Amino acid sequence: MQILVKEITGPYCGEYSDGEKVYEVVSDHLKKGDFLTLDFSGIDILSSSFFNGSIAKLFLDFPSDFLLKHLSIVGMKRIDRYVLNRAVSDAKNIKENFVAF
How far apart are CA 91 and CA 68, in angstroms? Predict the structure, then answer.
């Protein structure tokens, strides 16, 4: 299944709340075991806040190996991919080092 991010957020993905909208749609499908392609075509602005509310949050809530098998990301500029990778790396680090009290 292909999800066009622009249809959920419009061309600007600068806010955490924009990311939460995408997270809700994607996580609902992933919980069903769907295979998704998240298409960022037509997006003019992406921010780390957006990625923290969407993709990074997915890495906190789902196993990494599951996401790597069920989620494909396309249509993203190289610099945006770099920002995404940093947000995901931070989320994985938090998940690995979190100690419940």
Answer: 15
Q: Tell me: the pLDDT tens digits for 11-59?
A: 999 999 999 999 999 999 999 999 999 999 999 999 999 999 999 999 9
Whole-number Å distance between alpha carbons of 9 and 36: 17
pLDDT in tens, 72-98: 999 999 999 999 999 999 998 888 887
